[in-house]
Design goal:
587 residues; Pdz3 Domain; 7-stranded antiparallel beta sheet; 33 strands
Amino acid sequence: MKRISVYLITAASFLLAAIGCKEDELLPELEGSGVSEYSWEDKVVADEDGEMLSLTFTSAAKWTAESTEPSWCQILTSEGVAGQAALRISVAVNTEVEPRSAEVAIQVEGYPVPQTFTVSQKAGVVEKGNGAYREVNEWIYRRMSEVYLWNEPIPELALDYSIDYRSFLTSILDGVADHDDVNHDDGAYNQELRTEYYTRIESSAPVTKVVGSQQTGNGFFKLRPVDIGVAVGILVEAVVPGGPAEAAGVARGHFITAVNGVTITRDNYKAVAAKIYTDPINVTLNTVTWKGENRDQAVVKLEGSVDLTPSTYVDPAIYKAETVELSDGKKVGYLLYMGFHTDFDKQLFDVFDKFKEDGVEDLVLDLRYNNGGEILSSTVLSTLIAGPLHQGKMLAKLTFNAARTAAGESAEYKIGVAETMEYPSGYQPIKEALLHSLGLKRVFIIATGVTASASEIVINGLRGLDIEVNLIGTKTSGKNVGMEGFLTSYRNYDFLLYPVSFYIENAKGFRDYPEGFEPDLRLDDSSFYPGGDFGENGDFLCNAAYGWIRTGSRPSYVAARDCAVTLPGVQEYACPRMGGSLVIYRE
């Protein structure tokens, strides 16, 4: 009502003024649009991937602007005053297969005609797939838009929903990377070249193996083809506890020189080695010793041959746990831990109870092959190490994307505190771990480039509590981010999406380790023949840890001569693993 009365008064005033004027005193009618010095042509071409347009002009009076297609061509500055003006237009990604255009009109007050121009876009993505996974891809897009740590550019991407689901996810990740590499921390690198994304999707068909999963094969975890001078063969670096190879007496350090009676050579080792993991085979086993201080001459001793038949077994998280007594009488706990999986958390209680019973004073935690797993389990292990003195202190804090953070989302994992993001009512093994803990002030961790994710949470988290962490080996992977798991089903298949959705920092706020943690004692034994089993003094890395503990100071080593040459081209890991899952949500 107030607006109407103002309008009536204004109209009446104008009428009285007009009556009181002589005909020759009337103002001349304005001509044109009132817009001059504008920065555009009749047509403005916008990128099909979307962009922000910033146009300038001079207006003779107050003005307004409108778009005929505001759903994708949105006027952000819809009005202004006389003088220099800026017109900002947000043009969305064209997801249609046809080009499109919108008309923009600027109307200046008192001028009879608006100034108009066209904003056009080329056709959007031309679909290249058969559309079989369109529904899955739409689900991937929704989840990535919501939880991906660097989700801001996703709405601007031109995406082809017709392609297969793995390629679709990669197109999102590549598209985000094209925006100034904002998702640089999502992935592993080799000389600044990204070799993989951490974010991934798995179908119900088994794609990757994880600790705790059932596997079928001969039970070899790691093999390395080597030339020791007097012979070429396959070095056994690790076998799975409880697998067929271990049951047949195969152990770390064995040297395989023949498979099914065929002697291994430089020419045939690739074809021969490919059979060792999965085929029914007969292998010829040898032990290798070395002459001279430089270990430059190998002595190969035949042990015999064994038959291996593939079978199904469970790959455990704990490969070896024992108490080692050093020459000075000190008791050291040794734990070869291969992956963080909640199925094995309570088995850790038995391990640490034995350590306590044996009077262990120090711990050597071997994570050389551990590339991660569940944060819950890393919190259990860290609680077992830290003990009641650090109860309630933060081990790890998760930082989500800007939208989730603004909405108040956060998560913390604390020593001995059962309540977590996944289990608001409490994941009890974290609290129970206090009863089995050692309460150590320092820990010695063996690490390599494979060591990643939840393993690095233990390293970073304990350091945040001012527990001394001594790293021995080579630089770790550098995975300072983590993933949540989301599960959906489509046409009788399960699809499990693991987007990188959070940064991980310790109690001191430190998370800047995308290049990995540098070792305190750098020792690379990847080209050396193992001199003993894991946990023994003959193992180069364990020997260094025990020497450090015994003497109280970091040992120094003169580089020894390589005693084995690795042959290229054979996959070393029988069970490649991807870690970092936090919790799985079913859609």
